[in-house]
Amino acid sequence: MANLAGGDVSRQAIFLIESGRTRPSMRTLEMIASRTGRPLSYFLSGESSKPADARIATDPRTDQLQALCLQQRFDEARTLGMQILEQKLMPATEAHVRLYVGQALVRLTSPDEALDHLRKAELILEAAPDPWLGAECADWQACALYLKEDGRALGVAERALKLCRSTEPRLPGTEVRILEHIATIHVKNHTYDKAVAYYEEALALAGGVRDLPRLGRTYHGLSIAYQERGDIARAIEFTHKALALYALENDKALLARGENELGLLLMRQGQMVRAEEAFRSALEHLGEAGTERAMSHVLLSLADLQLQTRRHNDAAVTIRQAIDLAERLGETLALSTGHMLMAQSHERMGRRQLADRAFAKAFRLLKSEGLRDRLAESHAAYAQLLEARGDVRLAGRHWKLAAEVALQRRSNRTQQTLAG
Which of 263, 326, 362, 406 fits as disulfide partner to 334, beta carbons 3.0 to 4.6 Å? Predict the structure, then answer.
């Protein structure tokens, strides 16, 4: 691979191309053909399967931009991409550049900037359709929306999977990535059975060629899903696998997410001291990574622990930090969870009216985002709180609302299945 790559691309890029996990530009393909002594036609199964790049003149810096993303040098990719975009470009070249810039910005946790570039790329593709590029743009848009905790992420990711499966030849690496992204969104939405199904499909499709960071994220997601299913032993097993892979990659942000998950598992086992150590380590690693994304979720985990250990004043301060951060970043799920935890804090300190208002805020947020599974869970949590107060009548009303929301969700899924 080193001989084949030469000084033009990285060995990692050659590996990803060979294993079908990325598509080479025409310039890279010509270089591979020359160095392997094969004609270009050997690598192309027909006009319909030629990369879109084969039909256009591309800026050679696009190859460099792709290589920087493959090597996870995202700051450099963003800088180079913005320099290229300052010049007049062919539409197809601009679409490719905006895709890579968008990908880099997603990985740098700048979702709003990423969405701007990815949507502009899609506008270009309306005039010159390219199923492969369309699938990539949709997938990275879904990732950006997921970072923003935007309820549209799942629909966009499902569109990306449909586009990916319509391409010829199929790119299994891209399909695995999209499957893992869909599974992760289902975890966030608390639809755990679907999450497990998508994760397992991704693992089966990946076969023997594994992307270690992606495998770590898959194990992490499976850990959360099995935890919610009540299988704590398997959840801990998957969490430790994920943490080992994150440590190998020295990815501080992913390591923090794994530590947060481990802390939640330790809490369920009653190991509060070790759980708090995991949460505080996660906050430190997020600080070292220079990202605020996911920090609100770790703060909420810590606040939940503080509530369970009767440190109510500490919990109130931590929850307020998480709510302020989630509001600033537009993180709907974290914000709704924050309001529900704040409601519990108020309730335990005898401030019932404030607890009711906090729950009402959570209901409005979840309803406006169409997150019906989370909304059903929130009504059930409020019903439990009301039962503890002795307000059986109002508790019954919220149990009924929880059931109605869940039933409507199942009905919508059935209609979508029949329509499909």
Answer: 326
